[in-house]
User: What shape does this take?
Amino acid sequence: MLIQQIRTVDPSYRLDSLGFPATLEGQTNLIRQLRLDRAVAFYHVKGEARPLQGETLRLMQERADSAYAEGQALFDAGRLQPRLSREEAIGNYVDRAVRRELHDLYNIRGIDYSKGQQIRVIGREYDTSGSDFTYRIPDARVGNIAFDVTLSRKTLATPQVRGFFNSDFKPDAVLIVRPAQLGSNNTYAISRPGK
Amino acid sequence: MFSSSYSSDKPYIPRSISEIWDFLGAMMLSAPTFKDKTGHCPDRNVDTEFFALNEGLKTIRKKVGEENYQALVALSDKMRAHFEADPEDKTEDGIKGRDCIIEMEEILKASARPKSR
Assistant: This one.
């Protein structure tokens, strides 16, 4: 079904496989890869970023959750040097682990995330509306959505979030991605004011 | 195993100080095995990770200067030896490997800082 959906968008799509995976892990990975390929097909062939926004969020959430668990375990075992507070130290590594994963993901699928593209990983997003240009750096941008990985709750009142909305690409929403271990409503979207 | 017409066979190589910074941050958490937790990169291991790191260091060689570059490469080699000596992350080697990451971060931070005149 997923393969059919991809071929509807891109008839030249090809999947090389040594057969259907026997293990649950293998099957899950295959479905994951196909969902991502479907998103890439929509982006490359039709220029639609929406499916890729969903897959980007999925990957960021998965990695934020696993990185947070790793960071907690390492910190508690005394294997992360406490140069900062516990949460700051773990948060710092979670952010970086998620961004590294995005670089890897986009690279593997041939998605250009260099300057000027619709897809960016820690790219500067300028606000040229005033006399002094300013910029903000979201962890990621996919089309008209900015993504921010964080341990703390952020709202429209957070200067960083307001800065994202003021940037020239005028995002429709900012997605705040927080590890699932932080409880319900860990990840949420802040819509553009007035939308 | 499977691949598709969208899969690239080119490994990800971090290509700026900022990307290497993030790469090291991820290594800090996933050491010493560097196994991928997301399922997107099932082939990731010690070899692929240090290949990417060392190739990435080459891309910033000019930017950080020869002396810093050599220090970063030496730390990368030292880090690998420590992690390989402690595959279960139970001994001092795991901590010493992470200390190498912190030393590399210090060099990168100093290199990224604007030079005073």
Observations:
- The longest strand of chain A covers residues 145-149.
- Residues 49-191 of chain A form one domain.
